[in-house]
Amino acid sequence: MKDLFGKAIFDFYTKNSPEDIITETSISEEDEMSVEYLFRSYNEMPKIEQKALQLAKGKILDVGCGAGSHALSLQNERSLDVTAIDISEKAIETCRLRGIKNAKVENILDFDGEKFDTILLLMNGTGIFGQLKNCNSYLTKLKSLLNPGGQILIDSSDIIYMFDEDEDGGKWIPSENGYYGELVFNISYKGEKEEPFNWLYLDYNTLQNAAIANDLNCELVLEGDHYDYLARLTI
């Protein structure tokens, strides 16, 4: 990976001629994403993210932290002990520059040695699972990092709305796709293209079934304005 997402984050923070990130998926056209959005304050966050931060307690792990806005809010505004991890070196470098005390370049599947009271996976937290078949390995890993009484706060969206309807109200979903929430993402930044990567959107019922299969309770905490939701998983 070229870490273009991380480069965009770093460029924005260091004022190095930042540009929008161009995203495209296997079911959608090119779209521009403003990097500034990743630097939002608590008051600028969607209700689902605000609710997750309100529920966060104890020792916290922020998985796929990006520019670190969630971790920064918890650390600075609530004085909580937060570890922020991301696979992007440039994103983590930015997190450290922004003042996050504990930021590490880590893949959650390789992360070990600590346990947490709250694990956060926000901004379509199920995305890092990549494909439906990987849910078990990720949920098993996340569960192993929880302290007794701990919680996983994770958000996603049911993207069924993106598919065409037939006359009877049914959805036209290409059969070769497998689960309809499995997308392939393409990212471009400053004329460079990232390697395509898998990204998973999970509807709530599918997440709940995966949680139950891994001996986790799954609770629907909040539904957003656009098919998105926040869920809480506990042992």
TrEMBL record:
**This protein's UniProt keywords:** Methyltransferase, Transferase
An example of a GO molecular function for this protein is: 2-polyprenyl-6-hydroxyphenol methylase activity
**So what EC number does this one have?**
2.1.1.222, 2.1.1.64
Q: Which InterPro entries match?
A: Methyltranfer_dom, SAM-dependent_MTases_sf
Query: Domain of life of the organism in this record?
Result: Bacteria
Is Methyltransferase included in the keywords of this UniProt record?
A: yes
- Where's the Methyltransferase domain? 58-177
Q: What are its GO biological-process terms?
A: methylation
State the name under which the record lists this protein. Class I SAM-dependent methyltransferase
